[in-house]
């Protein structure tokens, strides 16, 4: 890996870590489009670029989520009861998501990423107020919700915050608690999704040197080192921003990245 790519990945990792702490999105929504750009510029096999960007993004979340959630937990913002209820479904869904992704070509995968992200951004930007009495569903509903969150997150290489944050705010959870809890959910999503991407990627021919399944190990190492250092800073800033501003940042970031991946799908 040349020095220019290392520098670019360090900068990307720093931004990803900050975003993970700030928005509870695991950094994946930011990492996948920019990793796609970098791997394209370095002439990686075109048919594997999006798959590798998504898989590597998911793997980095194992490290950024731990760093981010420690900062949020110190402020008492993580709803651990919600984490326990969603985690079983998330583990199942996060294994299934990469399997679905392995069946799709690069164009279909990029389009899926763009559609899911744009939908999530719209839900957040509309800022619809939930019914005052609405609460979380029962155990079966939480299992299903976790399965849906995990499947989508595993498919597009994100920490699940683009689904779990809107879901929790819809259930009358305050945005800061939703972001913090989403950061905690990032670890089971990343763990199951990473193992799934290794398993299904090992069967794929033509992957470049340094790849373990669909995961590009050199990028994982560099990005993780930088992101772990900046995630606590993002978490600190998150607790200083007003709710309305945090929602706008979340939505606008997702829109811009969805636009790039849609462009990539048809290019």
Automatic annotation (TrEMBL):
Which organism's genome codes for this protein? Noviherbaspirillum galbum
Residue ranges annotated as transmembrane are 48-66, 78-100, 106-126, 138-158, 178-200, 212-233, 245-263
Q: What is its main location?
A: membrane
Q: Where is it located?
A: Cell membrane; Membrane
Q: How does it sit in the membrane?
A: Multi-pass membrane protein
Note whether Magnesium occurs among the keywords: no
- Please give the GO cellular component terms listed in this UniProt entry: plasma membrane
InterPro entries from the xrefs?
A: TM_pro_TauE-like (IPR002781)
What are the protein's UniProt keywords? Cell membrane, Membrane, Transmembrane, Transmembrane helix
Indicate what this protein is called per its UniProt record: Probable membrane transporter protein
Q: Does the keyword Nucleotidyltransferase apply?
A: no
For this chain, the family text in UniProt reads: Belongs to the 4-toluene sulfonate uptake permease (TSUP) (TC 2.A.102) family.
């Amino acid at each position: 890996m040349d020095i220019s790519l290392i520098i670019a990945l360090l900068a990307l990792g720093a931004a990803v870590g900050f975003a993970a702490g700030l928005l509870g999105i695991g950094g994946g929504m930011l990492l996948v489009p920019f990793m796609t750009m970098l791997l394209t510029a370095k002439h990686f096999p075109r048919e594997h670029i999006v798959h590798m960007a998504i898989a590597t993004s998911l793997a980095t979340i194992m490290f950024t989520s731990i760093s981010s959630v420690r900062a949020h937990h110190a402020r008492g913002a993580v709803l651990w009861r919600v984490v326990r209820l969603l985690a079983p479904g998330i583990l199942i869904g996060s294994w299934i998501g990469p399997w679905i992704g392995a069946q799709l070509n690069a164009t279909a995968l990029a389009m899926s990423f763009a559609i899911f992200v744009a939908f999530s951004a719209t839900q957040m930007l509309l800022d619809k107020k939930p019914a005052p009495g609405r609460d979380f569903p029962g155990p079966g509903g939480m299992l299903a919700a976790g399965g849906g969150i995990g499947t989508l997150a595993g498919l597009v290489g994100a920490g699940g915050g683009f689904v779990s944050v809107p879901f929790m705010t819809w259930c009358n959870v305050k945005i800061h608690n939703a972001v913090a809890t989403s950061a905690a959910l990032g670890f089971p999503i990343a763990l199951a999704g990473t193992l799934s991407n290794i398993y299904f990627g090992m069967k794929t021919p033509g992957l470049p040197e340094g790849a373990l399944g669909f995961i590009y190990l050199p990028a994982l190492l560099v990005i993780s080192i930088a992101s772990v250092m900046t995630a606590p800073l993002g978490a600190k800033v998150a607790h200083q921003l007003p709710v309305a501003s945090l929602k706008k940042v979340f939505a606008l970031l997702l829109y811009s990245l969805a636009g790039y991946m849609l462009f990539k799908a048809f290019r």
